[in-house]
Amino acid sequence: MLAAAGIAPGEALCVALSGGVDSTVLLHILARLRGRGGFTLAAAHVHHGLSPKADAWLEACRASCDALGVAFHSFRVQVRRDDPAGPEAAARAARHAALSRVPCDWLAFGHHQDDQAETLLFRLLRGTGVRGAGAMAEVEPGAPGRLRPLLGLRRAQIVAYARERGLTWVEDESNTDERYVRNLLRHRVMPVLEEAFPAAVPVLARAGAQFREADGLLGDLARLDDAACGGTMLERAKLLLLSDERVRNLLRWRIRALGLEAPARARLVEAVRQLRAAPEQALRLPLGAVVCCTYRGRLWLEPEGGRAVPEATVWHGEAELPWGAGRVVLAGAVGEGLSRAVLDRAREVVLGPRWAGLALREGVGRPRRSFKNLCQEAGIPAWLRDGLPVLRVDGAAAWIGEIGVAAEFRCAPGEPGVVPLWRR
Ligand SMILES: Nc1ncnc2c1ncn2[C@@H]1O[C@H](COP(=O)(O)OP(=O)(O)OP(=O)(O)O)[C@@H](O)[C@H]1O
Predict the structure, then answer these.
(1) Which residues line the annotated binding site?
(2) What long-range pairs does 132-139 form, CB within 8 A, spacing at least 24?
(3) Least crowded by CB within 10 Å, which of 9, 15, 180, 286?
């Protein structure tokens, strides 16, 4: 398995050592393989301070490492018992954050096949999608990567190994809420399941591997659909040519690519329904941590609560300026856009957001219209207005993204001009 993970000679492995039987056995096996595997070995223990035995666990881990000549790291983390996520989840988050600071190429965990089967069942019963049903992978590339070399072994095999070799380990007596449900599953449900289906554990573990494979394929499909729909800003019309399932899969994939949790299925179902029901309309569809925005044939995701209003930048003739998550390209042209001569004569040209009292005259002889009126007429929804780029020339609005150029700045036929293009 270590070879299959692509562990190169000289790479640093670190066992996440709780002091329980699983990670203690893992430590012993890896210590024996050290010479042949060509990797360096260390272990790290996280002291959560939740149990009165926490100090003893840390010392037991240190002693196991000393006996094997394995470098030992320990971390003390603060876990609030009243954490809104619950002490178990808070401890897990703090533990994983601490472990990811260990200077190593791979962290090795002691999860085994019974853990895998329980994880899958637990997640299915709590409600999960294909991603969650994939449970735990043997190899998770990353920095550091994660390995679970014991995933193919049953708990009983691990305990038998530990007994045969006279290893000592500590027992975790914690019984907080989530543990309680997990323990119920482990001690009451699994034995009944195994009585009826003797191969329940390996079968469930295999199902996890199949879900993981399916999840990988869904990711591949989303990547293809994303590219076909235009990449960064999706083309709504192309997106709607896909089946509902593929649109949902693509949105889910995009949300995860932002490092966020995918929303509940019902939310995605509703969002896709609304996208189809009003294919022309500007929409803001809540999807948990993000909002799916559509406007004029484009579709994109924004953080919930909207994006920060982009900052103003002075223009010194650059070909483009950053604007929020996108940019404004200022392309040279003839007889089009803003008059180059007028811009060159200006004391200051700034790309920034709208300001109070902003108004613009679209044509010679036409009245100056307020920003609000211009937006209303152009059908620009209120939620999009703070994010519109405005080119301000000596205090006057010369161009507003999605609206256009002011009459007094417009380039005459045959004259050199500058055409601003907002690329999101
Ligand atoms: N306090 C700890 N310090 C270091 N490693 C730990 C600690 N607790 C658990 N681990 C590592 O995590 C593995 C799984 O532990 P356990 O089953 O208790 O955690 P879990 O909460 O079910 O899993 P996970 O943290 O992956 O969600 C252990 O075999 C061990 O490798």
Answers:
(1) 18-23
(2) 133/207, 133/208, 133/211, 134/208, 134/209, 134/211, 134/212, 134/214, 134/215, 135/205, 135/208, 135/211, 135/212, 136/111, 136/208, 137/212, 138/1, 138/5, 139/1, 139/4, 139/5, 139/6
(3) 9
Task: Give me the residue spans of the domains in the chain.
Answer: 12-207, 229-303, 313-423
Ligand 1 site residues (CB inside 6 A) read 16-18, 22-23, 44-46, 92, 95, 109-111, 115
Element (H, E) at 115: helix 113-126
Angle at 15 between CA 11 and CA 17, to 5 degrees: 165
How far, in Å, CA of 224 to CA of 257, rounded?
14
Q: Which of 14, 15, 17 to mutate to test the pocket of ligand 1 (most atoms within 8 A of CB)?
A: 17
pTM, full prediction: 0.79
User: Whose alpha carbon is nearest atom 7 of ligand 1?
Assistant: 18
Which positions make up the binding site for ATP?
18-23
pLDDT for the residue numbered 310: 87
Ligand 1 midpoint to CA 113 (Å): 14
Q: Whose CA is nearest to atom 31 of ligand 1?
A: 109
Residues near 191 by beta carbon (within 8 Å), at least 6 away in sequence:
none
Q: How far, in Å, is the centroid of ligand 1 from the Cα of 109?
A: 7
Query: Cβ-count burial of 259 within 10 angstroms (0-12 exposed, 13-18 middle, 19+ buried)?
Result: exposed
Ligand 1 atom nearest to 47, measured from its CA: 1
Per-residue pLDDT tens over the stretch 23-33: 999 999 999 99
Q: Is the pLDDT of residue 340 over 90?
A: yes
CA 91 to chain centre: 21
Report the alpha-carbon distance of residue 124 to residue 128 in Å, rounded: 5
Interval between CA 214 and ligand 1 midpoint (Å): 26
Pocket test of ligand 1: the residue of 50, 111, 116, 153 to mutate, having most ligand atoms within 8 Å of its CB, is: 111
Q: Are 225 and 249 in contact (CB under 8 A)?
A: yes
- Architecture, CATH, for domain 12-207: 3-Layer(aba) Sandwich (3.40)
